[in-house]
Here is the input.
Amino acid sequence: MKGTKTSSFGTKGRVAHDSSKFYNSKLYKEIKNNNSDIIVNEFPNELLNTIIASSCENMKDIPNNSLHLMITSPPYNVSKEYDNDLSLNEYLNLLKNCFAETYRVLVDGGRACINIANIGRKPYIPLSDYVSKIMIEIGFNMRGEIIWNKSAGAGISTAWGSFQSASNPILRDVHEYILIFSKGNYKRERDKEEKELRKDNITKEEFIEWTKSVWTMNTESAKRIGHPAPFPEELPNRLIKLFSFTNDIVIDPFMGSGTTAIAAINIISKIR
Here is the structure.
């Protein structure tokens, strides 16, 4: 069977696809994939299914290279009751410290998934861009980004700016980002013994649908959850099943309303 190759005009399908022409181009010449320590350390049993009341900037209780997946949604730092009123630089420094610790505790090939929204209008603050830059500076390899389309359940926003006028029209955000990164290898390697312990837990239909870069999901009620900015359980549910195996250990360094933990427990994952 003859495989497909990268061409100037694209290809209708990918069969044993040879993309070497693309990755050997000048576009990729100066981009290097970051490598990491492949040693895996045992995660302490006493910390499984536990909330550690400590700062995510110093996860001293967690060994290096011992966790498999991070899913989180950082607080938006907009003076809501659960935030400190930090400057932009202070806020980004907090995230950098937290995600540097995340890098330390993830195994080689471990994934980091960050749900974040851009904020403000005058000016618009592209937090997703800032976070992507921070993660790459730390040493993560970026795998891609998912657009969370919230339009079906986002309600009716009236923040139009100058309504029906070119004077000052304002875009109404009905989406957020889910940024996906890997530590070291893009592929999680498993030996024969690990394949018995760590198995895939995703259906064919789920895999085909969830590998699309746009996810349409309703928002979660802040009033019902009792948290200013909760994400729906479906979001971490998809990420856990897509990016981890059974018996992997999942961490949410900010935790919020605990939705990541609930999703992990509900699909029989272990969580710190």
